[in-house]
Batch of 2 targets.
Target 1
Amino acid sequence: MNTYTSEQLRAWDKRHVWHPFTQMQDWEKEEPIVITRGEGCWLIDSDGKRYLDGVASMWTNVHGHCRKELNEALKAQVDRLEHSTLLGLAGEQSAVLAHKLAEIAPPGLERVFYSDNGSTAMEVAVKMAYQFQVHQGRPERSRFITFKNAYHGDTLGAVSVGGIDIYHTTFRPLMFETIQAPATYCYRCELKCEGPAACGMHCLDALETLMAGHAAGCAGLVIEPLIQGAGGMIVQPPGFLKRVRELCDRYDLLMITDEVATGFGRTGRMFACEHEGVVPDIMAVSKGIAAGYLPIAATLTNERVYGAFLGEYAELKTFFHGHTFTGNPLACAVALKSLELFESDRLLERVQPKIARLAERLENMAMLPHVGDVRQCGMAAGIELVEDKGARRPYPWELKTGVRVCIDARRHGIFSRPLGNTVVVFPPLVISLDELDLLMDGLERSIRAVTGD
Ligand SMILES: *Cc1c(COP(=O)(O)O)cnc(C)c1O
């Protein structure tokens, strides 16, 4: 297998691979790490050096790398069938997985539309919500209520309902308009609450005002439940999501929850919505669904939405959307085995002490002079670094403080990737307490080294 040298691999990568969200001029000057193997929570490079996977390979990994049972499920499926289409045919694995997803999803979400990634799952959600309104005889309901700082993916519809300026500004001329509500960013509250303790949830009042004014022209509301991931691990105040559900009901808006990052155990429950007993009308899942093995996504909805698309062929109520690799059997087989492991490993139970340990470690981290805020939701956390803690003044983004911390952490055998000046902690859910300590020790040392303390 390993017939190429590290030098060859680096050279070909630099010569040909255009990396996502990467300034390639910088990349070409670096000596990139080339990952060739994985083992549990560890990634191993072409020189044999090991790195703890602190971001679960872009928030997808659940049971560790090269987990025996998942590898076997994949190998068994590939010898039966690698792919057949859902256009005109049903599939064994996609049927079983849909049945299983309907069972574990919030009640009533029993209709499963497959696609390939988080962005497509959100495109599907947005188009489904709008076409639903058309079928209700309300084609004027074409807009969406969204949140500042939200992230729903990088395709144009997903970008349109997102709210991160640095990613989205360039593409504004290509995007559709939305009604944007304030973010629940307690540390930097636009509405001048004095932090989470004195939070009056004025953001909810602002949201309601927007709904009162615009709901008649809106199909639905789009939200990342409990935590805005890519926006910087911004955690909502408790009770917020439940109130959003109530407001959606009052203003007759479809509630679309994007559980792409939060789904499959990340928050300590199978889905984030469960923490507040919320049942959305449409739910998008992807990242953790196949435990980080293969790209697959699903958009789940209820009978009310699904039923609106039923009609005579000539009525053209069909949902005109689909992707080539929809319901891929290999990905579905791994996803099914992953759900079995959740049960046989009692994963949701066993992740609780790790959530508690992470909380302790973050509490200590918060004392560092350049840590402005720490935020946690289950096994997802953000550590926001600031130049001046008293004034909450951020480091100028050009200094790349977050990036420098993560580069430094490699010396301690840790791979992480920041969101601006927020250092992210998002390890595979199977991480051991010792490995979690190793991760937090390494990040702490690098934060001290880079922020000069
Ligand atoms: C990552 C992410 C997406 C986009 O998923 P891709 O698979 O990268 O297209 C959408 N929503 C949320 C909340 C995400 O974290």
Target 2
Amino acid sequence: MKVPLLDLQAQYAGIENEVMAAVSEVLKTQRCIGGPKVAELEEKIAAASNCKIAVGVSSGTDAILNVLMSLDIGPGDEVITTPFTFFATVGCIARTGARPVFVDIDPKTYNIDPSLIEEKISDKTKAIMPVHLFGQMADMDPITEIAKKHALPVIEDAAQSITSRYKDKTAGSIGTAGCFSFFPSKNLGGIGDGGMIVTNDEEFYEKLAIMRNHGSKPKYYHKLVGGNFRLDPIQAAALLVKLPHLDEWSKARRKNAKYYNSRFSGTDIQTPYINPDCVTIYNQYVIRAAKRDELMSHLKENQIGCEIYYPAPIHLQECFSSLGYKQGDFPNAEEAANEVLALPVYPELTDEMKDYVADTVLSFGSGD
Ligand SMILES: *Cc1c(COP(=O)(O)O)cnc(C)c1O
């Protein structure tokens, strides 16, 4: 049996007619920039995130970049974040000219360890950017408390965690701003690139909206230097078709995870730890195994899609060698990079597929 890590064709098969109709509607009007679909999606994502207001943008990366630029972060500044994330989190900090300052992760959740943040705050610190990795939110109460104490904005990189929950809060609604990605492999994925920023601060919203469009207001007059960070209405149209399915898809992912958890309990396979304060959306189901690379080969030989998120922590990336970080600086992130493996958890997995994945994982090392 063949089980891919993710099967977007299976998802598309159920919504093809609606997506085609929605895209066609945009094309007929030839409102190819902005327009009602973008506005409708902004409203609905804000509501789904329990936020006042949202700004559709061109990608999750541009969501983060726009927020950093709108906070006037630049050369000489520092932004605190995790080294165990997708590159974009840190790439955006570096592109503003600011210095990324890393804090190691909690080895159980893979999210930034709040107890290590305060010692990294200096008079140059301008923001804290936790990442809600794999669908589970970071431990936001202590992060918010530290940020308040030092009057720092919190930027939630929620690219992998749209509608995920922490206590009575939704991802993106706790910090100054939350950033979402609609990259096709995210839980709410477009038919190309897209992203969204959510906020409860209406004044900040104004600035984000102006920065999205070259800092222009009124048209052709620029008080600020922004970028072209606009969300494509064709993406908005497709996303509006998908959004009503998101909760049912997240439930199916949790059900699949629960099945794997029961199959792996009492074995050497370490299943994902979910903070009891959190409801995850399982963007990834990530196990840990000491012989991870051999297990990965075993799964691939048996036609099971799996992937390492992420094989190299960001502080050890070549492009950041000038920051002066070295091996051993963030042991929890480094150890995770050597042991994690994501298994297929997408909603359309059949019982047979889940069985096959679990059987194949468990047969590793048993000689068959
Ligand atoms: C996907 C992702 C991004 C970037 O989103 P894009 O839409 O691909 O630009 C940023 N941060 C994290 C944690 C991500 O997973």
